[in-house]
Amino acid sequence: MSEQETTIALVGHCRPDSFAMRSALGRYAPRAVFVDVNDSAALAAQSGASALLVNRVLDGRFGTGNGIELIGSLPEEQRRRATLVSNLPDAQAEAVALGAVPGFGKSEMYSDKAKDTIEGLVGARADG
Hints:
By secondary structure, the protein is an alpha/beta fold.
């Protein structure tokens, strides 16, 4: 998959947060297409996304309001492309224990941690 075909799904984020994430994280994957995912059907439609950035407290209709539970319900292949967006270390540890990539919080969107996470997800997908 080329970088031009890279899709980053913003899962369960409110509109203002989604806008902020596109603006901040777009610099790390400038050719990526960001897609808002706010329900189970939209999540299923994005099953091939390069990255799933899952909010800890979901905004939308997923059958759960908990991003960690949502990550746990994903097929293993998708969990390896998912990361939790949360500033809480315990929540991050739970998501990683379920197979997610270590994530970052919204306060860290401009950090090297977020950059490394996005580039790792996009690069891993682009390489095969």
